Write a sequence for this structure.
């Protein structure tokens, strides 16, 4: 006899996210390249894997070292873009606007095909994984940015009863 769990009337947020991780009605999904100082991108991917229960598909990272030459770093980014590129394009997530990872990534911008969001954090990565394939890249980046802004909260204010933005 197989045990089947009865669906709840209100799915948990984690269950909803898990059900949608690799959703894609067109057979392709936006590739994601995380370009950061040090090993931050790897750590974000590891954290996402822990939350969703498996390594997210078509998500890779590039670690930037300030001791490497710009051309060498651009080539590393290009290889990772090629590794995850699909008909849905590529989203590059960088850690900090104006930093080397962002500045190097801007050279790959292609309207409607490759875009860059600076200021990556775990909620932004999870949203990007969840939303890809559901809408065109240009539309999804707007939703990801809006979500990222709303994911930053002051805990002491919330504990005092203040509303989250």
């Amino acid at each position: 006899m197989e045990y089947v769990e009865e669906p709840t009337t209100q799915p948990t947020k984690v269950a909803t996210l898990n059900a949608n991780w690799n959703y894609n009605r067109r057979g392709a999904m936006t590739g994601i390249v995380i370009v950061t100082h040090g090993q931050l991108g790897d750590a974000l991917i590891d954290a996402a894997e822990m939350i969703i229960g498996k390594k997210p598909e078509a998500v890779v990272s590039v670690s930037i070292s300030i001791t490497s030459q710009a051309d060498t770093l651009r080539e590393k980014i290009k290889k990772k873009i090629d590794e995850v590129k699909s008909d849905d394009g590529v989203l590059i997530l960088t850690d900090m606007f104006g930093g080397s990872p962002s500045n190097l990534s801007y050279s790959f911008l292609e309207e409607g095909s490759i875009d860059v969001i600076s200021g990556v954090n775990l909620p932004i990565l999870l949203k990007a994984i969840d939303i890809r394939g559901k809408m065109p890249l240009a539309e999804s980046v707007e939703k990801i940015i809006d979500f990222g802004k709303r994911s930053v909260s002051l805990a002491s204010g919330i504990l005092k009863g203040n509303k989250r933005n």
User: Anything to note?
Assistant: The chain has one domain: 25-151. The chain has seven helices and four strands.
